[in-house]
Design goal:
Elements (H helix, E strand, L loop, with lengths): L1 H6 L16 E4 L2 E5 L12 H14 L14 H14 L3 E5 L2 H12 L5 E5 L4 H10 L3 E4 L4 H10 L6 E6 L11 H11 L2 E5 L14 H5 L8 E5 L9 E5 L1 H10 L1 H4 L6 H16 L2 H19 L11 E7 L1 H13 L2 E2 L1 E3 L9 E6 L6 H15 L1
Parallel strand pairs: 2-11, 4-5, 4-6, 6-7, 7-8
Antiparallel strand pairs: 1-2, 3-9, 8-9, 10-13, 12-13
């Protein structure tokens, strides 16, 4: 597939941008509408975020010179973690160098081979990798299927603890986990529950607090929340929002916290400023989801298969890998940059364009894109 894409001059991956990301980007000497960016709130390039990062470099420098447990902690690390905890409604948060490492930290420090993880079949790869790397037995239940989860709980054996794991928003399909049902099953069976908020933090709920706000449940009904600071929050890093007891334990037991470099000052400052903007401008969340609803419905009306999406992640499922890759190339010639997603990121026969709408897109941007999809449909 890679060779054929190169021969057709439509290789779709690692296209180098020639400036900052945003609703429109510059690449290959042309201006392109960006439709596959995780910048859900349209905050990349916001002058307030940029200035916060610049000010942090002037005060703290470009790095901290150590890991968090030793000499790498600066005061704004703690300030950011307190602000994230307050926003998420949990007692504490711990930050990490990436969301991937946050998931690895949870699995490796809190679980053992005597425990088990029951994980949604479509949960992010980092969660499955974390189980494998930590040596924790893992069983997948059918996607968003609580009957399947119940079957695994009733039929499987475990001498230790059971952790149920799902994404808030699933990154390939754009659908949402059935959180109230997962909480009810967790309580019935005496399990623990972990939700990865990478694509739902800043996206779901009236004020962007995530899956709990979307469903109107207390955040403390979930034992462990993890998330990203590189999507709706346009910075770097990840976090775990947890109880105070778990936070104290993980700081002394989680290898990604103990042995990985601390987040750089610019990233911390950018994340803090972005969170402050989200709190003061919740209308960004409404704009984001309004754009997503409009664009998703437009694609459906044109006859495209957008699966079960109900969020700003909108797959256009084309099935065949060659067709999908060539379709992305044709869109690029029409001034639109999209990402094709192929096996093994999705099952064979389920290749798709993964579109991401943001709060930064205008109605004119979305109509421009729909016109291109309309033209390519005929």
């Amino acid at each position: 597939m890679t060779r054929r894409a190169c021969e057709a001059s439509v290789y779709p991956f690692q296209l180098p941008l020639e400036g900052r990301s945003g609703p429109w980007v510059q690449a290959e000497g042309q201006r392109l509408l960006m439709l596959s960016s995780y910048d859900y709130l349209g905050l990349i390039g916001d002058p307030r975020v940029d200035q916060a990062a610049v000010d942090a470099i002037r005060k703290y420098g470009t790095g901290t010179g150590g890991v968090r447990m030793l000499t790498g902690t600066i005061d704004i690390h703690h300030q950011m973690e307190r602000e994230l905890a307050a926003f998420k409604g949990m007692a504490e948060t711990i930050s990490f160098s990436s969301g991937y490492l946050a998931n690895l930290a949870v699995m490796s420090s809190l679980l053992s081979p005597l425990d088990r993880v029951l994980i949604d079949a479509y949960a992010h790869r980092s969660l499955a990798d974390a189980c494998r790397l930590a040596g924790v037995p893992m069983t997948r239940f059918a996607h968003n299927d609580c009957a399947s989860l119940r079957h695994e709980l009733e039929s499987g054996e475990c001498s230790g603890r059971t952790l149920i794991v799902a994404d808030g928003v699933f990154s390939m399909d754009g659908d949402i986990c059935p959180l109230p049902d997962l909480i009810a099953i967790k309580q019935e069976f005496g399990c623990y529950l972990m939700i990865d908020e990478a694509h739902s933090f800043g996206v779901l709920g009236r004020t962007g607090r995530g899956t709990d706000e979307h469903f109107g449940v207390a955040p403390t009904e979930v034992d462990i929340w993890t998330g990203s600071l590189a999507k709706a929050i346009p910075s770097n890093g990840g976090f775990a929002a947890i109880s105070q007891e778990l936070a104290i334990y993980m700081q002394h037991a989680a290898a990604p916290f103990i042995f990985s470099a601390a987040l750089c000052p610019a990233a911390v400052a950018a994340a803090r400023e972005s969170l402050a903007i989200l709190e003061s401008e919740p209308d960004r969340v409404a704009k984001l989801n309004g754009n997503a609803d409009y664009f998703r419905e437009g694609l459906r009306n044109l006859g495209y298969d957008v699966g079960t999406s109900e969020t700003p992640i909108i797959p256009v499922i084309l099935g065949d890998e060659a067709t999908t890759t060539l379709f992305a190339g044709r869109l690029r010639t029409r001034g639109i940059l999209v990402t094709p997603v192929l096996f093994p990121a999705v099952p064979q026969g389920a290749a798709r364009l993964r579109l991401c709408v943001t709060a930064g897109h205008t109605s004119e941007d979305l109509e421009f894109a729909l016109d291109a999809f309309r033209e390519l449909r005929t």
